[in-house]
Amino acid sequence: MPSQPVPTSDPAVNLLSPEFLTDPYPIYDYLRRNAPVYFIEPANTWVITRYRDCVSIFKDPRASSTIDLTFGGVDPAELPQTVASVQANMVFMDDPDHARLRALVHKSFTPSLVENMRGQIEQVVNELLDDMDGQSEIDLIKAFSYPLPVLVIADPLGVPFEDRNLLRQWSQIILQAVDPLATPDVMVKGEQCLIEFSDYLTRTIEDRRRHPREDLLTKLVQVEEQGDRLSYQELLSTCILLLIAGHETTTSLIANGILTLLRHPHQLLTLRANLHLIPAAIEEILRYDSPVPMNPRKALEPITLDSHPIQDGQIILVMTGSANRDPEIFERADIFDINRTNNPHLTFGKGIHYCLGAPLARLEGAIAFRALLKRFPNMQLSSTSIEYNPTLRVRTPKELLLTL
Ligand code: HEM
């Protein structure tokens, strides 16, 4: 049976309302039950919320990743340079271009390279925690979870200690500039940062060509697969991708994780007493309150999904945040349970674009949660009302005030 169409004006469904941003889960539930393949006519966009439909679109080569970050809001010829550069990478490509780039980057960004980053991540985490010591109240995002991923990726990208704050500023402003809600002023700043970052990378890349080191950047410069190499432009956009793709996503994993644990004191108590459960707790945090709840695709050909006709050119929002709560797949889907064993969440995507940084995100998360739980045995939420950033791409609170 196809699901019943729900009128596009359904007042229960507003994906940009403050209620949805704060707590999207009742609306996901409503959509999964009543309109799992839901069409928002004015936006020419489909919203899909069931696990099986999300997997089906992830695996469908007719559902393309070649979308621009403005969702078609800007003529491609007039895309700001920041947006164009940030999206000139594998995430926004289909095979075979995507497969070629991914294979080259995958050869450099290996699980063993990530494992070797452990000591350096621990050092960054401890430095950030040392800075927080002695303060009675902090914003965990500003003090810890926002700077952490940039400081971690700095070293593999060849940015030395003394320039880490530069990288932090560039990443922050570039991220703001590619948000669909960016003001012209922020976009201009984004362009400047992108130029500075590209110049910086160009110099570092040249240095690594002449003086190879044991870092990721050198590996990317040298990588070769069946005679194929990354072009200079590809090298640049890959570095930008590694900086951006792992930034707010990891920030959100840590912030959403601490928030969820503090809202579930029994689970937090269990975790404190059983730190070996941290990897399972991270998977449950990724499922329960996904940092990346939505992945966009564009239909290149007509696709029929649950008897609904998706037409060529229409956008499909694959709502993994909802799929992760689908009771068809997850028992007691709305319950946060760090002891959950069967947890095939879709937070890192599925299929050809499955997150290349997942091992790094998991390692960073594991080190960060362990250190936070040990260092601050009494941390508590200072405020019960949490405001979220107004974007569907990455779900992060604007701030997370804690008493330590
Ligand atoms: C909790 C943290 C993270 C989450 C939730 C996450 C999520 C995702 C998702 C959902 C995709 C697939 C997008 C799609 O199918 O359209 C993706 C792709 C990707 N991610 Fe992550 N990510 C995280 C951290 C990282 C980190 C730390 C890095 C690297 C530094 C990274 C690098 C990448 C890359 C390179 C891709 C592109 C893969 C491809 O297109 O083949 N991610 N990520």
Explain how this protein is built:
The chain has 404 residues and is α+β, with helices and mostly antiparallel strands. The chain has a single domain (18-403), classed as Orthogonal Bundle (Cytochrome p450), CATH 1.10.630.10. Helix content is 49%, strand content 8%. It contains 18 helices and ten strands. The chain has helices at residues 18-22, 25-34, 51-58, 81-86, 97-108, 111-115, 118-132, 140-145, 147-154, 164-177, 184-210, 216-222, 232-245, 247-263, 265-273, 278-288, 320-323, 358-375, and strands at 37-40, 45-48, 63-64, 137-139, 295-299, 303-305, 308-310, 315-318, 380-381, 401-403. It has a five-stranded mixed β-sheet, covered by helices on one side. A hairpin with a 4-residue loop joins strand 1 (37-40) and strand 2. It is globular. Mean pLDDT is 90; it is low at 1-7. Protoporphyrin IX containing FE (HEM) binds next to helix 13, helix 14 and helix 18.
Briefly, what is this?
This protein is an alpha+beta fold and 404 residues long. The chain contains 18 helices and ten strands. The protein has one domain: Cytochrome P450 (Cytochrome p450, Orthogonal Bundle), CATH 1.10.630.10.
